[in-house]
Design a protein that fits this description.
Belongs to the aldehyde dehydrogenase family. This protein has 486 residues and is of the alpha/beta class. 38% of the residues lie in helices and 22% in strands. β11, α8 and β12 form a beta-alpha-beta unit. The chain starts with a strand and ends with a strand. The structure holds nicotinamide-adenine-dinucleotide and (2Z,4E)-2-hydroxy-6-oxohexa-2,4-dienoic acid (2VS).
């Protein structure tokens, strides 16, 4: 069986403790590899390698030299596209059609975009008068922050990890990555690509393991990491923020959500149905930007519910190698327990189960997979946990509204604020509502349409800070002002 090791200082190394855990394919429940679990020893070695590499040639390269290497990393991912695709599908069970359109291409794009961006960032400068009349000139320069701890989740493993590693390296930092224990493989594969592309040893390091009392905690507790960038649950974000407080290290947190879709009667119904179907069910609902609350103007409520039900029931449930499948399993049986507990809660609270609500019948070879039915409810109260808590599964609750003000109030009623999708053909309304919705990202008549130059992140308990475009470059650099008296 394949062994997945840490990648430290340019070499794949095992854990000295001999501790390892199973990597399970959630489509069929089979163990696909054994993953070494890092102890403090491996985390210390990875941070030391990253620190040494930070003092080495990487940050002193010209921007052209560094970005040329990052382009080679992107090309290296594309050259081994099929291997990355296979690994991502095996770790997550997601359909190949999804991973080949989103996960792997974005893994490569995250290096190209930030390599190009770094070449075009202007510096600020201010001239100022002085009492003696000679004046002074202020100008800003940016320097890499140092060793960045990158902690990433399992839902888009390569995409979300490179979304941080790409800009961090473009800015001249070095990184220690702790990928999710559920999805270690593409992070490890990337080590091979980095090496082949000429990234100096120690610039990109990977330690595998769990969160609490394991590699994740050891990394965030390590005093020689300068900043942390994290994507994952809000509760984990709080824990990481506490660890980062020791030594006053900066954090960028991309956290959970309970995103609202708002569908007005003046929408293009075909577009609203197609977009909402994707936003609820893509990646088996395991998308931080996904919609779990849908608010629909009352006059079109019944039509919308019946069309979304028809769409959900037409999804093709199946494993990655089934080319017709567009709906895979959840990440694990443990996560399925959580999702099914909300399915039960919805029934207990008297929801109308429009469709789904359970586990689909699967053929014997997939019976141990983490399959769950696409599910739609109506009729729950606004304060039901099913409506207020992030489930992170393929499900939504649909509720009617009577006025624009009511829709905005409902959308803003929770402590989360990541993303929202608004469906209307009235351009004035679109601007008005988009400006009022409390979320870091608002889509109008679309969903998950991404321009990587734009800001990305959540408000309220959905995160701290923004990444994307120059915002990533701001996080991964220190801005220094130099004042020269003339
Ligand atoms: N806002 C965004 O951009 C965004 C994007 C994707 C996913 N998410 C969120 O991520 C969650 C799903 O991902 P998940 O279940 O992997 O999240 P998670 O918080 O359970 O785990 C994320 C990572 O943190 C690590 N971790 C866990 N406990 C830790 C600790 N105490 N110290 C250090 N590291 C620790 C995990 O091992 C994993 O690598 C959802 O809440 C989703 O909304 C947010
Ligand atoms: O599940 C969350 C998906 C996040 C997507 C991004 O971070 C991105 O597109 O850059």
């Amino acid at each position: 069986m394949k062994d997945i090791k840490h990648f430290i200082d340019g070499e794949f190394v095992g854990s000295t403790s001999g501790k390892a855990f199973d990597n399970v394919n959630p489509a069929n429940g089979q163990v696909s590899s054994r993953v070494h679990e890092a102890g403090r020893e491996e985390v210390n070695a990875a941070v030391a390698a990253a620190r040494a590499a930070f003092k080495g040639p990487w940050r002193r390269m010209t921007v052209d030299q560094r970005t040329e290497i990052l382009h080679k990393v992107a090309d290296g991912i594309n050259a081994r596209f099929e291997e990355f695709l296979e690994a991502e599908c095996q770790d997550t069970g997601k359909p190949r059609s999804l991973a080949s359109h989103i996960d792997i291409p974005r893994g490569a794009a995250n290096f190209k975009v930030f390599a190009d961006l770094i070449k075009n960032v202007p510096a600020e400068s201010f001239e100022m008068p002085t009492p003696d009349g000679t004046g002074a000139l202020n100008y800003g320069i940016r320097r890499p922050k140092g060793v960045i701890g990158v902690i990433s989740p399992w839902n888009f493993p390569l995409l979300l990890m490179t979304w941080k590693v790409g800009p961090a390296l473009a800015c001249g930092n070095t990184v220690v990555v702790k990928p999710s224990e559920e999805t270690p493989t593409t992070t490890a594969l990337l080590g091979e690509v980095m090496k082949a592309a000429g990234v100096p040893d120690g610039v990109y390091n990977v330690v595998h393991g769990f969160g609490g009392n394991s590699a994740g905690a050891f990394l965030t507790e390590h005093p020689d990491v300068d900043a942390f960038t994290f994507t994952g649950e809000t509760g984990t974000g709080e824990t990481i923020m506490k660890a980062a407080a020791k030594g006053v290290r900066q954090v960028s947190l991309e956290l959970g959500g309970k995103n609202a879709g708002i569908v007005f009667a003046d929408c293009d119904m075909d577009k609203a149905i197609e977009g909402t179907l994707r936003s609820v069910f893509a990646n088996c609902g395991q998308v931080c930007l996904g919609t779990e609350r849908v608010y629909v103007e009352r006059s079109i409520f019944d039509e919308f519910v019946s069309r979304l039900k028809a769409g959900a029931e037409s999804l093709v449930i199946g494993p990655p190698d089934d080319e017709t499948s567009n709906f895979g399993p959840l990440i694990s049986l443990k996560h399925r327990e959580k999702v099914l507990s909300y399915y039960q809660k919805a029934r207990d609270e008297g929801a109308t189960v429009v469709t789904g609500g359970g586990v689909p019948d699967m053929p014997a070879e997939l019976a141990h997979g983490a399959w769950v039915q696409p599910t739609i409810w109506t009729g729950l109260k606004d304060d039901s946990p099913v409506v207020t808590e992030e489930i992170f599964g393929p499900c939504c609750h649909i509720r009617p509204f009577d006025s624009e003000a009511e829709a905005v109030e409902l959308a803003n009623s929770l402590p989360y604020g990541l993303a929202s999708a608004i469906w209307t053909e009235n351009v004035t309304r679109a601007h008005r509502v988009a400006a009022q919705v409390e979320a870091g990202i608002v889509w109008v008549n679309s969903w998950f349409l991404r321009d990587l130059r734009t800001s990305f992140g959540g408000s309220k308990q959905s995160g701290i800070g923004r990444e994307g475009g120059v915002h990533s470059l701001e996080f991964y650099t220190e801005l220094k002002n130099i004042c020269i008296k003339l």
